[in-house]
Specification:
The chain has one domain: Alpha-Beta Plaits, CATH 3.30.70. It is about 25% helix and about 30% strand. The strands form 2 sheets. Strands 1, 2, 3, 4, 5 and 8 form a 6-stranded antiparallel sheet that branches. The chain has a two-stranded antiparallel sheet with strand order 6-7.
Length: about 170
């Protein structure tokens, strides 16, 4: 089996968001054939959608996994559900936990339930800045360096906290 380096975006703005992210990383460490390698700091960001909701706490985690992309997706969705995620029709609404597979090695995947690289990641400051913190030399599957993409994105009020998402990282 081949191990793949993957990056997972984490976000929460309900029910003690920072604790939600800590718990999610601990749950990721329990996934079979998967190791948590690096964790970014926590960041506070403005909501993308309706503004009548709390700010988000975001982070990015690097994992190494021998799972397939769809098996990893199922594991991430189970963690979300275990932490009280309720999938409603409202896009970009408040949530206890959102886990997104940003990158799965250098693969490009477009299926009905999974798109990698994650749609929109190249325009989201709350993904790019924490990702750059843990993978500054990363080259995206499109061939662009992360720093090149990052230079075209505003911080948009993004604030870095002093703590990372997991003390063991």
């Amino acid at each position: 089996m081949t191990a793949h380096t993957c990056y997972i975006g984490l976000g929460s703005n309900l029910s003690q968001p920072a604790e939600q992210l800590h718990q999610a990383v601990n749950s990721m460490a329990q996934i079979e054939l998967t190791t948590v390698r690096k964790c970014s700091s926590l960041y506070s960001s403005k909501p993308m959608g309706p503004q009548d909701q709390p700010d988000y706490v975001n982070a990015v985690v690097e994992i190494e996994t021998n799972l397939t992309p769809h098996a990893l997706l199922a594991a991430m969705q189970k963690i979300e559900l275990d932490q009280g995620r309720v999938r409603k029709g409202q896009r970009w609404g408040p949530r206890t936990l959102d886990l997104d597979i940003l990158l799965f090695g250098n693969q490009v995947i477009e299926s009905q339930d999974l798109t990698i690289p994650h749609v929109g990641m190249k325009s989201r400051e709350f993904v790019l800045f924490p990702l750059h913190e843990i993978a500054p030399d990363l080259v995206l599957p499109c061939g662009n360096s992360l720093i090149f993409v990052l230079n075209s994105v505003s911080r948009n009020g993004l604030v870095k906290f002093e703590q990372d998402v997991k003390s063991e990282c």
